[in-house]
């Protein structure tokens, strides 16, 4: 019977330290962490590893339910998958566990709140962008890839797959950058 912690932040500049310290303080012998959006399960390899690793009697621990995800269906599916493996899920804030039937109800409601919160965040972001565009100060999102470096590697004979591995992105992103240039 193991306590396995999972921590997640959405962006690269956010800090995981608080979640990691809390999970370790709660007795999680194994803690997996990643920086990825909670909007879907795609690309969340650490989460997939945790779910695959769960055994009967294990406990998946997260600091808040929105660390598992911000889509109600995804969160409920994750809880279901954990239970199919004989494990249960515990959220530390507020303290809720799937060990009891009431925990399922509370986690369902919290999942719906997390999804609603995500919609509000996106709406505020859209409003902010529109306001910035009207004022003429919108410059677009921060570029995550060094396009010049990608073009240099390609000009030097490096293939898209190797470039993708080098810069840490998908091959499709490399193809898009090469088409732009």
TrEMBL record:
Domain Resolvase/invertase-type recombinase catalytic, chain residue ranges per copy: 2-136
**Keywords assigned by UniProt, alphabetized:** DNA integration, DNA recombination, DNA-binding
Report the domain of life of the source organism: Bacteria
| SUPFAM superfamilies hit by this protein | Resolvase-like
Q: Where is the active site?
A: 10
Residues forming coiled coils: none
The similarity comment for this entry is:
Belongs to the site-specific recombinase resolvase family.
The identity of this protein, by name, is: Recombinase family protein
Organism listed in the record: Methylobacterium longum
């Amino acid at each position: 019977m193991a306590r396995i912690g999972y921590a997640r932040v959405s962006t690269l500049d956010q800090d995981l330290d608080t979640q990691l310290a809390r999970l370790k303080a709660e007795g999680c012998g194994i803690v997996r962490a990643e920086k990825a959006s909670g909007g879907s399960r795609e690309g969340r390899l650490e989460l997939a590893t945790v779910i695959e690793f769960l055994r009967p009697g294990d406990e998946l621990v997260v600091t808040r339910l929105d660390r598992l995800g911000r889509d109600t269906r995804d969160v409920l599916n994750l809880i279901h998958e954990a239970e199919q493996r004989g494990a249960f899920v515990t959220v530390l804030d507020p303290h809720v566990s799937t060990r009891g039937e009431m925990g399922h109800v509370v986690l369902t409601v919290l999942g719906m709140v997390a999804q609603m919160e995500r919609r509000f965040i996106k709406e505020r972001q859209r409003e902010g962008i529109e306001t910035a565009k009207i004022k003429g100060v919108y410059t677009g999102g921060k570029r995550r890839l060094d396009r010049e470096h990608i073009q240099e590697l390609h000009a030097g004979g490096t293939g898209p797959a190797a470039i993708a591995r080098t810069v840490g992105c998908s091959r499709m992103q490399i193809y898009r950058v090469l088409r732009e240039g």
